[in-house]
Amino acid sequence: xxxxxxxxxxxxxxxxxxxxxxxxxxxxxxxxxxxxxxxxxxxxxxxxxxxxxxxxxxxxxxxxxxxxxxxxxxxxxxxxxxxxxxxxxxxxxxxxxxxxxxxxxxxxxxxxxxxxxxxxxxxxxxxxxxxxxxxxxxxxxxxxxxxxxxxxxxxxxxxxxxxxxxxxxxxxxxxxxxxxxxxxx
Length: 185
Prior knowledge:
20 strands
């Protein structure tokens, strides 16, 4: 039996994102995100109803400010009290775990997909998905970018505008492009 593109994506294998099943899943996420972003704040609450249903998990007191964007939603797991400020974009082609008490500043971007290095592969929609994990009580500054396959340790701080290309140790502070450690816990 040949694996579907969704199965390949979930397994961390190369897959093509130009696929009817994946497009259906992305359309469901777009609908949930649209509702979340357009409900009046008092009606939306911490997370819009359709988006909360779609998420892999949303711990008690977790909150996503609008506007927000995600690719699939079902690969996003929020710990208790996790907070995503306005403008966050999470391309969750692989699981994204955001720990309890972790704060994401405005316009933080998390990208799980990597594209083929050859133009022909990119034109064919070839991608590989790598998970991102952010530990408990971390703080990700505004407009930081976190790339595929990165783990950020508990209590770590990522400075505003940093581009995180590799793992960040627990309680470390990283800044810059590419992000580099400036203090250790």
